[in-house]
Write a structure and sequence with these properties.
The protein is an alpha+beta fold and 370 residues long. It is built from 6 helices and 26 strands. Strands 14-11-12-13-26-25-24-18-22 form a 9-stranded antiparallel sheet. Strands 6-2-3-4-17-16-15-10 form an 8-stranded antiparallel sheet. A hairpin with a 2-residue loop joins strand 15 and strand 16. Helix 1 packs antiparallel against helix 2 (71-79), helix 3 (129-137) crosses helix 4 and helix 5 packs antiparallel against helix 6. The protein starts with a strand and ends in a 7-residue tail after the last strand.
Length: 370
């Protein structure tokens, strides 16, 4: 194998493929990147047992061939080279890498389990990368870290009534993103639980101005955008019926400036006690929202002007859970609906920027002693 490729193009491809390289494993093949030079392109593949990634770049291929190399090693070498053409040549079990006056010689791996990443012959679900990235960021933080609740460690993709519903919940909050989306009828009324890590890695790869095609492949899903594709396993478990959780009957409604609320919650957390679930108390009365927090070292009181409708209220929350939902709302003003001090709060964007998207966030209160 012999090829020439620009250093930055090669580094970009290595960075993409490395997202499917295991950071801690005793399985050698999961530490490798597989290079394949064919015609006028270089294709890089990696597979860590959970996700598989393939990406291609244009290259001047003098001799077709293939090689496998440890991902961390090749990344460190190429990263330190100047932004000039890089020549890679494989001969007699040795890899030679040249760039200007730099010359590296490495031992090639004899064995690599090349995971087949083929695109199914089906019509895909197509979604804009900007929409997908935004939707992942609005949901992934609400997934569970508890591996004993495997279904909740992923994000539900639910296709129903010309909508893609993305749902994450961990037992304390629910993050729901609805996107108006046209898709092939074969996908109607289907749902997939996609591992959080898979979606986060994909969102880091894709470019905003492109689209993602999503294919069903047996028990896996295949994501394709441009010259990069990723195959991931879905979580084969039943998701909680989130619709029974979201009951928006409000006795008190508050509209508040998003920045004011985020800043007040931020300051309130300075004195919140992590041993007490970052507890903050909220009082709503006379078109004011009063946020209070106290611990052994002191207390804080924040007051925000709000547009209040309905009854006065006293309620308590985990400050981080509340703040993450507010931050995820894509608007300058936020609507909060309360039923009572014992019922969840529902958070909505009041003036959403995006017409074909709806966001709902539910957070459970912390029950206080009288």
């Amino acid at each position: 194998m012999k090829l020439k490729i620009n250093q930055q193009e090669l580094m970009d491809a290595i960075n993409i493929a490395s997202k499917a390289v295991s950071k801690s494993t005793n399985i050698q093949i999961h530490e490798l990147i597989y290079f394949e030079a064919y015609q006028d392109s270089l294709t890089l593949r990696a597979f860590d047992g959970e996700i598989s990634i393939k990406t291609s770049k244009e290259a001047l291929v003098e001799e077709e061939g293939q090689m496998a190399v440890k991902a961390s090693l090749i990344a460190n070498i190429i990263r330190k080279l100047p932004n000039e053409p890089v020549i890679i040549e494989v001969k007699e079990g040795k890899i030679n890498i040249r760039c200007k006056l730099s010359d590296f010689n490495l031992i090639a791996f004899d064995y690599f389990e090349k995971n087949d990443l083929s695109i199914p012959d089906l019509r895909p679900i197509t979604i804009g990368n900007d929409v997908l990235k935004r939707s992942i960021s609005q949901t992934e933080f609400a997934t569970s870290m508890d591996e004993t609740k495997l279904a909740l460690t992923g994000i539900l993709f639910e296709l129903k009534d010309s909508k893609l519903n993305m749902v994450a919940l961990d037992g304390y909050r629910v993050s729901l993103k609805k996107i108006n989306l046209q898709y092939p009828s074969a996908y109607e009324a289907s749902e997939y639980i996609i591992p959080r890590r898979s979606l986060i890695e994909w969102s880091r790869i894709i470019e905003d101005d492109m689209k993602t095609d999503l294919y069903r492949k047996d028990n896996d899903l295949v994501f394709v955008s441009g010259d990069t594709s990723m195959q991931c396993k879905v979580i084969d478990k039943n998701f909680i019926d989130y619709r029974n959780i979201i009951n928006d009957i409000a006795e008190t409604t508050v509209i508040v400036d998003k920045k004011d609320l985020i800043n007040s919650l931020d300051r309130a957390q300075v004195l919140a006690d992590s041993a007490r679930a970052n507890l903050i108390k909220i009082e709503i009365a006379e078109s004011k929202m009063i946020i209070m927090s106290n611990s052994e070292i002191g207390n804080v009181r924040e007051v925000i002007d709000v547009d209040q409708k309905g009854e006065d209220l006293k309620i308590a929350f985990n400050a981080r859970y509340m703040q993450e939902g507010v931050k995820a709302s894509d608007s300058s003003k936020i609507k909060l609906n309360f039923k009572s001090s014992l019922n969840p709060c529902l958070i909505y964007p009041e003036d959403s920027t995006y017409e074909d998207e709806d966001f709902t966030y539910l957070v459970l209160p912390v029950r206080l002693a009288d």
